[in-house]
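Work Package 3 (structural annotation) set out to generate three-dimensional models for the target panel prioritized at the project kickoff. During this period the team completed the workflow that converts sequence records into discrete structure tokens, so that structures can be stored uniformly alongside our sequence database. As a representative example, we reproduce one entry of 167 residues exactly as it appears in the project archive.
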Amino acid sequence: MTQTSFFDFSSNPFFDPKNNPFLDPTKNPFLNKDLADVFNNLKAPGLDVQGMIAAQRKNMEAIAAANKTAVEGMQAVIKRQGEILKEIVDEANALAQEAGSNVGSAPEDQAARNLDAVKTSIEEAVGNMKELSEMLAKSQGEAFDILNHRLTESLEEVKSTIAKAKK
């Protein structure tokens, strides 16, 4: 039997309940239950299980929102990079056509035009790099703000829980 992938559950012996007792539902009580039910029935003095579950749900939602913001930012950067590449190719084609039409002109004039084109290209490249880095910084800042806001909320929730437990 050849294994196609480590995560191919049908052919991986570690995922076979006969070989791995942890995956055998008769030996592992957690496989037959929803973990939320297990924690809902957990009774501990001063422990707000529902609050903990709600807090973790909020944490996961904040992480998902931050990831979504980061991905959207990266998509915008990639889209802008494509636009910049198209602009560069169009400019290169225009310069090549211009160079072909100026074959008979004086070498000094050609050199001056080439230096101007190089200068313009460098200035545009620096401007494009600055624009892309600002886009990335904005996206990362927004994602960080989402996580920072949730962290602050979470600390307030912990503080509130500790205050309730003291009463």
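The chain has a mean pLDDT of 82.
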